[in-house]
Write a structure and sequence with these properties.
disordered C terminus; about 0% strand; disordered N terminus; 10 helices; mainly alpha
Length: about 260
């Protein structure tokens, strides 16, 4: 009679084998954890100070960002107060006091606030008849890279106007040609000065064409267009065009209580 296999013995052997496998896996995990711990310890011993330093620097940088952001808001508020005070003094006729108020901001400020203070000091210098000093302030603004193009262009235009008598016509032409293009914000004003530079350079044909072009541009204020028409006529160029349309445009502008033209110069 054949003996039947002892199923309990087989089960016991399976359990024993699984237990051995589990113990081996646990041992391997312990060894692996120990190896990793040793690796981390070595890394920490070698680079711990550097890691701490990087974290501290990152935290300090973040704290500095928060600090300077709030400080920047405070600075902007103070800068605005300085500008308002200087403008109030200027409107009251206290040119010297207004200049003294704006001077620190123009010297040590930054961005748009500094540019506005420099423009203000330039305007004061013009009022005082110091065109050279005024041109220097305007040129400082024109050279700034952290302000809007429109403000930089205005500063360049005012710098050229302030220094016009000391500049060669070729220099005026070079500096104002980019500003005296249709569609530019100061096209009318820059074009008018550019036309005068053409005349001083003996280029009457270019001057006449430019004045005629300005006179026909409805985006240019009527005061500038009127002067441009006169200059074009003097130079023998018809800048009037349709007389009836011109008269109607002038009447409409007068009725609206504003100069013809839609863009401030």
């Amino acid at each position: 009679m054949a003996l039947l296999p002892n199923r309990n013995s087989e089960k016991a052997a399976d359990r024993k084998a699984k237990t051995a496998v589990a113990q081996d896996e646990a041992l391997l995990r312990e060894v692996d954890d120990a190896v990793r711990t040793d690796q981390y310890r070595d890394i920490w011993q070698k680079y711990g100070l550097i890691i701490v330093g990087v974290v501290v620097v990152a935290l300090l940088a973040f704290a500095a960002y928060l600090f300077f952001t709030s400080r920047s808001d405070g600075d902007r508020e103070r800068d605005s107060e300085v500008l308002v005070q200087a403008i109030d003094q200027l409107e009251a006729g206290n040119l010297k006091q207004a200049d003294e108020t704006a001077a620190p901001l123009a010297q040590d400020g930054a961005g748009g606030a500094q540019a506005q203070a420099q423009m203000l000091r330039g305007g004061i210098a013009l009022e005082q008849g110091d065109n050279e000093k005024a041109a220097e302030f305007f040129e400082q603004v024109a050279a700034k890279g952290d302000i809007p193009d429109s403000l930089r262009d205005l500063a360049e235009l005012r710098a050229v106007v302030a220094a016009y008598d000391s500049l060669e016509p070729s220099e005026v032409i070079r500096r104002l040609t980019p500003l005296a293009q249709e569609g530019e914000p100061y096209y009318g004003s820059a074009g008018e000065i550019l036309g005068m530079a053409y005349l001083d350079a003996g280029q009457e044909e270019k001057a006449g064409k430019l004045f005629a072009q300005i006179a026909k541009d409805e985006d240019v204020p009527e005061t500038i267009r009127g002067r441009a028409r006169q200059m074009a006529s003097v130079l023998g160029i018809d800048a009037v065009g349709d007389v009836d349309e011109l008269i109607e445009s002038m009447r409409a502008a007068q009725a609206a209580g504003r100069p013809a033209g839609r863009r401030p110069q």
